[in-house]
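Handout, section B. The chain below has 199 residues.
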Amino acid sequence: MSQSKVIKVKEQFEEALNLVEKAFDCEKRLPEQVFLVPWQKKCVFDFDKAMGYSFWNELERLVTLSGDSFILMAVLDPHPVNYYYKEFSQYNWCIFPKGITANEYWNTIKWSPEDSPADAIVHNSEVVVWLSPTMKWAIWGERNCGICILGLSDETSSFTSESCLSIETAITDLVSLNFGNSIPDEMKSKFMSHYNDMN
C-alpha cells in the first residue's frame, strides 16, 4: 500500500499547484466564488470536523466515487512557498493515496516540523483545499468562516453524508459564530448567490 506523503520537491509542488489553479481561484476568499469549475452539486462541512480524524471517512468515499488513485490536500494560507517552504524546506501540501487508513491521514496532518508544533497542518491552516486530480470533486475550507464547501461533478453527485449541511444552515449554525452571531447582509447574500445551488 502506498503511503501518504508531504510534498518536498519543487517539481512535484508545481505539478500539484497546476491542479489546484485549475479548480480554484486561489486569490479569492469566501463568500466570493472560489471555484473555477461549475459543479453540479455543493454541500457544506464544519471546518473543525473537516480537520479531524474522522473526515478521512468522507474523503475515502469521495475517492471511491471518483475512481482516483489519490487525494491532494493543499494549504493556501499560510503560503506554501513564502512561509512554509522557506521555514521548513517542505510544503504544507500532502498526497493521500486511496486505501490508506484514517490513522495515517490523521498522523500526516497533525505532524509538525521539529521545534514548531503550532505549524502542524491541523493547527496552522487558514485556507485549505482537498482535490480530486481528475476534477470530479473539490473542497475549499476557510477557518475564519468555520466551513468547507464541497463541489461535486455529475460523476460524484450521488455523494451524501449526514455531516453535509446546506449553505443556509451553515450560515446560521457555523459562519455566524465567527461574526458575533450576526452576519452582514452583503456577506450572506454572496454566500447564497454563489453556493445555494445544492440539490
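Note. Residues 26 and 187 are 19 Å apart (CA to CA). Compare this with the example in section A.
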